[in-house]
Design a protein that fits this description.
single chain, 373 residues, alpha+beta, two-stranded antiparallel ribbon, 12 helices, 15% strand
């Protein structure tokens, strides 16, 4: 059946056959003029079959796949295709007349060769040899006292269902205020972002005292849990020390100025670096602020301490392009605040309102003056 785009027939022309193929087809001189009998074609094929010794000095033989008297014959176009695909004609079983190799035979052979040379789908590459095949060395060591305490605290914290809330804060106004205080001619002060944020959290707790509370649970059956409301804002600050993670707290932040909070913060950091924090410094916290951004990272999912119901994680301050009120592109310093709240007693709306109040105070640092004591 004829198909569109396919040849109707394959015609071999003597002028298109290579010289070495023509020799195979030309009868020897001694047979010229001899009478033709019924067995002459078969005898001629046998007499002109290429002997291994005559064809190859290395005693090579034709591939057993080749069949027919003209199995190694091909047109110049087919030979060019064989050369381009780096295929020997002896490796192909021809389907043409007298076993001649056609283009379709070459394409089928190349497809089969390529499919077998590539790894199957999903097959992993061979793993490189490992030089060191010695057994793994395992050493068991005891937890440090701080690690042991952190293990107990975080294990208890796993029983608290966490509600996460995050927002991006515009720190540019606060950055400008810090620069003004630093360059002040009368009383220059070098303050970080953290004292302002701690004060903003304390001012927001005045409007949302639930976030400063503590959940009291009793193991006695039938006794419902209770909330312990606390009047003082003892805000803990997570610190990375040579001994590990420590969380001392600044006492009664509501009655401290931003400068006093900064002094308290520096004092606790100095004690933490020399392992001189007392039990009073490490206990009594009501809410925690973790400034992970001082090390790096944009977002954090902080873990609530069992004696508290909320914690704030602060990401790294970074400069990004933003649009101002007139639509112009400006540089803006931003940071991400990530909150976690005890979802057993703090609903999502309350946590969102608390986070929004802190954002307003940080983005408008002048408004903190109204609530300062």
């Amino acid at each position: 059946m004829a198909q569109v785009g396919k040849p109707l027939c394959d015609i071999d022309i003597l002028g298109d056959i290579a010289l070495e193929d023509e020799v195979l087809l030309t009868p020897p001189a001694e047979q010229a003029g001899t009478p033709i009998d019924a067995q002459q074609p078969q005898k001629a094929a046998e007499q002109h079959r290429v002997k291994p010794a005559e064809r190859d000095g290395n005693n090579s033989r034709l591939d057993p796949l080749s069949s027919g008297s003209h199995a190694s014959l091909a047109t110049p176009a087919v030979r060019g295709l064989l050369k381009g695909l780096d295929i020997k004609i002896e490796d192909i079983r021809g389907t043409g007349r007298d076993g001649r190799v056609l283009k379709d035979d070459v394409h089928k052979f190349a497809a089969t060769r390529d499919s077998t040379s590539q790894p199957e789908a999903g097959q992993l590459p061979t793993r490189p040899a490992i030089r060191d095949d010695s057994p793994q060395k395992v050493t068991s060591i005891a937890l440090t006292p701080i690690q042991a305490q952190m293990f107990k605290t975080m294990t208890r914290s796993l029983s608290i269902p966490h509600f996460l809330y995050a927002d991006e804060i515009n720190l540019s106004p606060l950055a400008s205020l810090r620069a003004q205080l630093k360059d002040s001619t009368s009383s220059p002060q070098k303050l970080s972002y953290l004292p302002f944020i701690i004060k903003a959290v304390s001012l927001a707790l005045n409007d949302f005292p639930l976030l400063n509370a503590r959940v009291e649970t009793v193991d006695t059956p039938g006794t419902p849990p209770r909330l312990t409301m606390r009047s003082k804002h003892n805000i803990g600050v997570a610190m990375d020390t040579s001994q590990g993670l420590l969380v001392p707290n600044i006492k009664d932040v509501a009655n401290l100025s931003i400068a006093e909070i900064s002094d308290q913060l520096k004092h606790l950091q100095q004690l933490a670096q020399v392992a001189k924090l007392s039990a009073v410094d490490l206990t009594g916290g009501t809410i925690t602020v973790s400034n992970i951004g001082s090390i790096g990272g944009t977002y954090v999912s902080p873990i609530i301490v069992q004696s508290e119901v909320a914690i704030l994680g602060i990401g790294k301050a970074r400069v990004v392009p933003a649009f101002d009120e007139t639509g112009e592109v400006v540089k803006r310093t931003v940071g991400n605040f990530s909150w976690s709240a005890d979802h057993r007693v703090v609903d999502g709306a309350t946590m969102a309102r608390m986070g929004e109040r802190v954002r307003q105070l940080v983005e408008e640092p002048g408004s903190m003056l109204v609530g300062l004591r």
